Predict the 3D structure of the following.
Amino acid sequence: MQITEMPLTGTIGAELSGCSLENDLSPALIKTLKQALARHQVVFLRDQHLTLAAQKALTAAFGTVLRLPYVSPMTDEPDVICVLKEADEAGGVFGGEWHQDFSFLETPPAGSILSAVEVPPFGGDTLWVSQAAAFEALPTPLKTLLRGRDAMHVGKPYGIKWAPPMEERAGGKIKMNRGDASADIERAHPAVLRHPVTGREALFLNPQYVVRLDGMTEDQSRPILETIQKHATRPEFTCRWRWQAGDLAIWDNMFTQHFAVNDYAGYRREMWRTTFDGDTPRTYAA
Ligand code: SIN
């Protein structure tokens, strides 16, 4: 096994080649993947065409496979979410805003794995941002404001108080349990994390789920959070993946945000998504 690593940008993302994950989940290969993930924050492999069983086995090699609340999994596959948009579906897409998967949970997923089953002929890319690069480039006063401070996360799209208007709601083919008051509960996580392998400090903030900084009201927090998010998503902190059927992405959910681009009206897109657990964000507090 000779894995080749080709960075996508100088900041985040690498394409790995030279292995087939359908046939080899040896400890040596998994170690190599985990090391590459720590360095690049998201890694991509082309031509994998994993079966559901193989994707679940790969996910389990990274951590305990998570079952997530509020979003219905595939029928008979409680560990897998089918991220599907049919050709005739209008409206938003699942994940069509910068976010970290389920950051409002006590223990959010440590990472997620997405495989491309059917992709549009153009569009439907996914973007990731390095929360470490974004933090490192923040002005010092903002770093000081965030270090040692918690941010309050809420399952906004699934709750009542912060739920988006009907026309902005995503995922017609994905069954979501909305209007659940339990999703409105605020959960405090450190605003800055330190990566356990690289030691880099990183933002743990995203606009989908963070409603305010601890010790501030929503109104006081909003301009600060918006300024940070605008900075964090500067193009030089991002990478973008142009999917082909059979591709696989593995990302570190604690240290990146991602965004599914909704620009393929009239075409079908089907992805399988699994997630694995890790430690609580508090464990990684900077
Ligand atoms: C997600 O947010 O997990 C979905 C990403 C995508 O469909 O590209």
In short: Residues 112 and 275 are 4 Å apart (CA to CA). The chain has a mean pLDDT of 94. The first strand starts at residue 4 and ends at 7. The chain has one domain: 4-274.
